[in-house]
């Protein structure tokens, strides 16, 4: 079931195993520049190609705050604007570099109530054109009553 | 040899012990959380959630106002790029005022001990963030404080020998002193393989 931009998913309408929408995100030089501007991270490994290659990286790559931004977006794009991100953890098994394209897949891994909060655990995997599971995230979002 | 190593490891943890479970000083961001900062963060992953963008919608939502994406907490507290000297002085006084009272732990003392033991390179081994309450424009700046909660003994890792340092950081709003986030980070500090004896 899809919902519009302004509607939040109803607790009763969610089941464990429900798939989240998939996002395809090409990592261009523009992406990486907006990443620096928006997250304030000036570490050269994210914008200086020579520095990145000198330090063993394939090329410049998106920073950890890009993943925070993307995972949060995927969660509320699916759950709706009044869902609130409660918890986020992710593992980076490899970089997503300039020229790569990220594709996400995710699902509801658990539906539970805790201290009167209606919580959904989500699992989101990022693949790129080179490998699967390059980044894996575990989130908890709270739906309104 | 093995006994010497065991003794050295014990010494590392013993040396760190007095520095554990003690809050470091509060740090204060230079800038308030603003709609502009929120929008610049949302551009990064093209997040169009209307509670971050649309004042009218946000006011009618359960949050009652425009909020920052919770996941922008680290970006919002990232260090400023350049600040004039007179403003740096003002910010230092503001931070000192926050820390008046109980003497905080010396920041970085566990890391200084790591350096002494040759664990000079660091990399984030794991991190988890809990978002405890919404924050946004009107909350002022953000303040942070950290404490180290655990240090491991020396472990053999892929890149050499190292220790795992666990710390937690709390994030609060300047206005209202509301706790909005708490992160737990596990840092690996290691002695690169080629330098290991």
Characteristic key phrases:
A: 145 residues, alpha+beta, Thiol Ester Dehydrase, Chain A, 3 helices, elongated, B: 197 residues, globular
Q: Could you please describe the fold and organization of this structure?
A:
The complex is a heterodimer of chains A (145) and B (197). Chain A has three helices and five strands; from the N terminus they run E-H-H-H-E-E-E-E. In chain A, 23% of the residues lie in helices and 32% in strands. The radius of gyration of chain A is 17 Å and the shape is elongated. Chain A has a domain of 101 residues: Thiol Ester Dehydrase, Chain A, CATH 3.10.129. With 197 residues, chain B is an alpha+beta fold. Chain B has one domain: Thiol Ester Dehydrase, Chain A, CATH 3.10.129. In chain B, strands 1, 2, 3, 4, 5 and 6 form a six-stranded antiparallel sheet that branches. The longest helix of chain B has 15 residues. The termini of chain B are close together. The relative contact order of chain B is 0.20.
Adjacency order of strands in the biggest sheet of chain A? 1-3-4-5-2
- Annotation field: number of helices of chain B: 7
Series of H and E elements of chain B: HEHHHHHHEEEEE
Q: Helical residue percent of chain A?
A: 10-25%
Tell me the radius of gyration of chain B. Answer: 20 Å
* CATH class categorisation of one domain in chain A: Alpha Beta
Q: What are the secondary-structure elements of chain A, in order, as H or E? A: EHHHEEEE
Largest interface: A-B, 32 and 34 residues
Largest sheet of chain A: 5 strands, antiparallel
What is the first-to-last residue Cα distance of chain B? Answer: 12 Å
Class by alpha and beta content of chain B: alpha+beta
In CATH terms, the superfamily of one domain in chain A is Hotdog Thioesterase
CATH superfamily of chain B: Hotdog Thioesterase
Averaged pLDDT of chain B: 91
> Would you tell me which CATH topology of chain B applies?
Thiol Ester Dehydrase, Chain A
N- to C-terminal separation of chain A? 20 Å
**Parts with pLDDT < 50 across at least 5 consecutive residues of chain A:** none
Total strands of chain B: 6
CATH architecture of one domain in chain A: Roll
Kindly give the count of domains of chain B.
Answer: 1
């Amino acid at each position: 079931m899809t919902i519009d931009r302004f509607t939040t998913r109803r607790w009763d309408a969610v089941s464990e195993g429900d798939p989240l929408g998939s996002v395809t995100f090409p990592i261009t030089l523009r992406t990486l520049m907006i990443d620096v501007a928006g997250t304030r991270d000036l570490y050269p490994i994210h914008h200086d190609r020579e520095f990145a290659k000198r330090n063993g990286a394939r090329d410049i790559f998106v920073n950890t705050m890009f993943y925070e931004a993307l995972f949060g977006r995927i969660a509320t794009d699916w759950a709706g604007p009044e869902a609130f991100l409660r918890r986020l953890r992710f593992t980076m098994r490899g970089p997503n570099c300039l020229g790569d394209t990220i594709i996400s897949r995710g699902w509801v891994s658990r539906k539970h109530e805790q201290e009167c909060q209606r919580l959904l655990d989500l699992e989101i995997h990022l693949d790129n054109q080179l490998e699967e599971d390059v980044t894996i995230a575990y989130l908890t979002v709270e739906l309104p009553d | 040899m093995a006994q010497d190593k065991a003794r050295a490891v014990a010494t590392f943890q013993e040396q760190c012990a007095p520095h554990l479970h003690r809050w470091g000083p509060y740090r204060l961001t230079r800038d308030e959380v603003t709609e502009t900062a929120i929008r610049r963060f949302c551009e990064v992953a093209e997040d169009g959630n209307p509670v971050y963008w649309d004042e009218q919608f946000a006011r009618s939502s359960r949050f009652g106002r425009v909020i920052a994406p919770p996941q922008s907490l680290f970006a919002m507290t990232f260090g400023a790029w350049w600040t004039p000297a007179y403003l740096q002085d003002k910010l230092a006084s503001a931070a000192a005022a926050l820390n008046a009272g109980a003497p905080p732990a010396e920041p970085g003392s566990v890391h200084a001990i790591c350096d002494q033991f040759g664990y000079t390179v660091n990399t984030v081994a794991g991190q988890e963030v809990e978002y405890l309450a919404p924050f946004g424009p009107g909350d002022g700046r953000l303040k942070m404080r950290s404490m180290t909660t655990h240090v491991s003994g020396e472990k053999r890792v892929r890149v050499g020998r190292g220790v795992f340092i666990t710390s937690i950081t709390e994030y609060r709003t300047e206005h209202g002193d509301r706790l909005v986030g708490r992160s737990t980070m596990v840092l690996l500090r290691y002695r690169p393989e080629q330098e290991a004896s």
